[in-house]
Amino acid sequence: MLALYYSPGLASLVPHMMLREAGAAFELRFIDRDNDAHKGEEYRKLNPNGRIPLLVDGDLVVFETAAIALHIADKFPASGLAPAVGSPERAEFYKWMIHLTNTPQPEYRAWFYPHEHVIDQTAAATVKEAAGQRLNGMFDLISEQLGDKTWLLGDQFSAADLFLFMLIRWSRNMPRPARTIPNLNALVERVLARPAVQETLKVEGLAAPFI
Ligand SMILES: N[C@@H](CCC(=O)N[C@@H](CS)C(=O)NCC(=O)O)C(=O)O
C-alpha cells in the first residue's frame, strides 16, 4: 500500500499530482503543519528531518520530493511520467529533476524560512530579499531553456513539468511571480489543463487562483 504524507500546497504536491497522473491506488495522510505535526515524534520516526513530503510504500519509507518522484515514475512506467531508462531523454529528465530540487527549491527555504538562515535575526529580511533575487534569475534561465518548447523535455510531458509547475506556483505572492514570464505561464496553463492536476488541487482544497 502506498501512502503519501502531505500538507496542502507544499512539496507533497509533486508526488500527489504524479500518483493521480499514474492512476495509482494510494492513501493520503494529512500532516497538520499548523500544529507542527511534522515535528512530532510519530512523524520523525518516519522522516527524521521533520519535513514534508514522505512516501510509504509497504516497508519502504522515502523522504525527499525528488526521490519520491523518481520512485513513483519507476513504479508506474506506463504513466509516461519519465522517459525510458537509458535514453537521452531520461538523462534530460534527471538533469531537470535534480536541477529543480537542488537549485531553485532550496532558495524557497531561504525565502519562506529566512530566520533559519541567520544568527542575527535582523538580517533575515536581507536574506529573504537575496533569495527572491536569485530565484528571479533562476526562473529567467529556466525560461530561456524552455524557449517555445511545449514541455521541459520538448514534446514529452514528464514529472519535471509538474515540479516546475509547483515551483512557479510558490512564487505567486512574490514581487515578481514567475508566471509573469510568458512561456512559463503557457506551461502552467498546459499543466493546469490536466485532469489529474485539477483533481489534486481540488482534493488538497487549494482555492483558485491556484498559481
Ligand atoms: N528537500 C526537501 C525539502 C522539504 C521541505 O522543505 N518541505 C517543506 C514544505 S515545502 C517543509 O517541510 N516545511 C515545514 C518545515 O520545515 O517546518 C524535499 O524536497 O523533500
Describe this structure in words.
With 211 residues, this protein is an alpha+beta fold. It has two domains: 2-79, Glutaredoxin; 88-194, Up-down Bundle (Glutathione S-transferase Yfyf (Class Pi), Chain A, domain 2). 50% of the residues lie in helices and 9% in strands. The protein contains nine helices and four strands. It has a four-stranded mixed beta sheet, covered by helices on one side. A hairpin with a 2-residue loop joins strand 3 and strand 4. It is globular. The relative contact order is 0.13. The model has no long low-confidence stretch (mean pLDDT 97). The site of glutathione (GSH) has 10 residues, from loops. Residues 10-11, 38, 51-52, 63-65, 101, 109 line the site of glutathione.
**How many extended strands?**
4
User: Largest sheet, if any?
Assistant: 4 strands, mixed
Secondary-structure class: alpha+beta
N to C succession of SSEs: EHEHEEHHHHHHH
Strand order of the largest sheet: 2-1-3-4
**CATH class wording of the largest domain:** Mainly Alpha
Measure the end-to-end span. 31 Å
Topology, pairings included?
Blueprint: E1 2-6, H1 13-21, E2 26-30, H2 41-46, E3 54-57, E4 60-63, H3 65-75, H4 88-102, H5 104-112, H6 124-146, H7 159-170, H8 182-192, H9 195-203
Parallel strand pairs: 1-2
Antiparallel strand pairs: 1-3, 3-4
Bound molecules: glutathione.
Glutathione binds next to loops.
